[in-house]
Amino acid sequence: MKKGFTLIELIVAIFILALGITAVFAIFPLGIQIVRFSKITTTATHLGGAKIEEIISKPYNEIYDEPKQALDPPFNAYSRETEVTCFDPDDSLPPNCPDDTGIKMVKVTVFWRSSLGITERSIELLTLISKK
């Protein structure tokens, strides 16, 4: 009796091995895309957090809205907008907030284009700031 593999067994083994290798290589681009998206989102979150820290360091009466504007290099792929409203836990104040409650709600939105540049993505960070 001869020991070894037949030709059909070798072909089946090579086919199964090829399928496994193809599946592993197909996952790599998805992993790279996920890592890239995570890096962009993390950068946007840090840029928003930096703006909130900048706003917190200002006196209460100098905290205002800032229009959407592009950031300086190396972050020129991002833009940032700041909205400031009076915080009303009862939601009874009119939108223009004539009576200051002593608490401002600051929303910083960071925008960027998707990797293909087709859609604009954004992330929002909120904080409350009170009079000191």
Strands ordered across the widest β-sheet: 1-2-3-4
- What is the general shape? rod-shaped
- Strand portion: 25-35%
Q: Which bin fits the share of residues in helices?
A: 25-40%
Question: What's the number of extended β-strand segments?
Answer: 4
Q: Give start-end ranges of low-pLDDT stretches.
A: none
What class would the helix/strand composition place it in? alpha+beta
H/I helix tally: 1
- Largest β sheet strand count, sense and barrel closure: 4 strands, antiparallel
Radius of gyration: 27 Å
The overall pLDDT average reads: 88
| Euclidean distance between termini CA atoms | 92 Å
List the secondary-structure elements in sequence, H or E: HEEEE
Account of the protein in words:
This protein has a four-stranded antiparallel beta sheet with strand order 1-2-3-4, with helices on one face. The chain is rod-shaped and about 95 Å long. It contains one helix and four strands. It has 132 residues and is of the alpha+beta class. The chain has one helix at 7-56; strands at 66-70, 78-86, 103-113, 120-130.
